[in-house]
Every structure is written in C-alpha cells, then in structure tokens.
Write a structure and sequence with these properties.
242 residues, alpha/beta, Rossmann fold, eight-stranded mixed sheet, 20% strand, globular
C-alpha cells in the first residue's frame, strides 16, 4: 500500500526579486532520492485539481511541484472558478515572457537546491496555459521528458522554440477543442518534425478542451484514463519514473 503523499507550500525566490508560492507533494515513503516533475497550472490557478494531479505524481514516486505563475499580479493562493475568464484575464495579460522564463528557471533551481533533486532527473507537465509553459520549459531545461495537455498559443508565436526542445515531448489535443484549431496543433507537430525533435502527438477525437480535468464539464473519463496511461509510459520510457 502506497503511503500518502507529504504536501506543503513553499516559497520559491525568483531572479527578479519576487517570491513565488508553490505547492509541493513528495512520495510518502522515506526514499533518499526521487525524480521530479513540475506541474504547470491552468489559467485558474493552483487549485484543488492541480494539487490533486501533483499528489498523483507523488504517488508514482516523484517529487512534484506546482508553482503559482500569477504571483506577480494575484495574491498567494489565488484560484478562480472554471469558466470565469473575467477573474483570470487580468493576470494572463500581465504575464510576460521574461517573467515566465524566470519563474521556470526558479522552479527547477528550487528542486535542485532545496528539493534535493538531481538536475538530470526532472520532467514537466502542463495543462492548457500550463501546456504552453511546459513546451517553453523544455526549451530552457534539459528535461527527461515534457508533457503538454492542450497547450494553446504555441502556434504561431512559439513555433521557433521547436528547434530548441531539449527533451522528448508528448502533446495531447482534443479533437472537439474549439480553442485550439486543428491547423494550430498540426503546425506544432510539423515544426517539431522539421526540427527533428523527439515528439509524440495524440489527438483524442471525441475530447474537448480540458478533457483531463474531472472538475470541468468537458471532462472525458475515457480520454483522461488513456492519457494518464500514455503519460506514465512516456515518462518510464525516458527514465523519468523511479
């Protein structure tokens, strides 16, 4: 029987002088070392769903951390209800590329310096907005693996980062997603293929945006279950699981 994850909130210092709150879940046993995964949030904050996903990774034997990416504009612990874009739009528009990159670097540095994780044993996963962030993170840090769930906004602006991907990346898309058109995720796949990046693209034909989240109306239990199985196999294939 797997011991319950050990969880806490920590403060991560960022190079621009700000401080970022983050939710951390560690394996419940007393393992001396474990690989790590950064869980990048949706637009609705590090909410119960993101915390639950973080604990699911801890149950796999990984140190998992979910940084609060809105820390410059929102109070610590900020969350919003699903679908309430008015509550999150301000924070999304105030995010900058420079700030996001600093947050990514700070999170991985915290894992190495304070989390006791080998820098060669790190991965990333992100959902929606966080799916885009996982793609960016994979261009900045040599990850064992990266996983992006329905990462909007990669095409066209971030397509040049395809050639900078440093670890293998698995990308999930919803065939019914009205937020990310097929030509967008196909452009991402084409750019990664042209760059000779190691990548896998999975489109669930009957899944909508946010299909992995069991707190959304768009939750698709079949696609979610299959995606989780693929995710675990992907991590295991590239040595990212203990």
């Amino acid at each position: 029987m797997t011991a319950a994850a050990r969880t806490e909130f920590v403060t991560v210092p960022v190079s621009d002088g700000t401080a970022m709150n983050a939710y951390v879940a560690r394996p419940g046993d007393d393992a001396k070392s474990a690989p790590a995964v950064v869980v990048f949030q949706e637009a609705y904050g590090v909410n119960d769903y993101i915390c639950d996903v973080t604990k699911r990774f801890a149950a796999l034997g990984m140190v998992a951390i979910a940084p609060e990416l809105f820390h410059r504009s929102a109070p610590s612990g900020f969350t919003a209800n699903y679908g309430d874009m008015e509550a999150v739009r301000e924070h999304i528009t105030k995010m900058t590329r420079e700030g996001l990159e600093a947050d990514i670097d700070a999170t991985f540095s915290w894992l190495a310096d304070d989390g006791g994780v080998d820098p060669e044993e790190m991965a990333a996963v992100g959902f929606c907005m966080g799916g885009r962030v996982a793609y960016v993170a994979n261009s900045r840090t040599r990850l064992r693996a990266a996983i992006s769930f329905y990462g909007g906004g990669i095409a066209p602006d971030l397509l040049p980062l395809a050639s900078a991907q440093r670890g293998p990346i698995l990308m999930f898309w919803g065939g019914l997603d009205q937020h990310i058109a097929p030509e967008q995720y196909r452009a991402v796949a084409d750019a990664l293929t042209e760059a000779n990046a190691t990548h896998e693209q999975v489109v669930f034909s009957q899944a909508d945006h946010g299909f992995f989240c069991d707190q959304r109306a768009s939750y698709n239990p079949i696609a979610s279950r299959q995606a989780w199985a693929m995710l675990k196999e992907f991590l295991a294939s590239y040595g990212a699981l203990p």
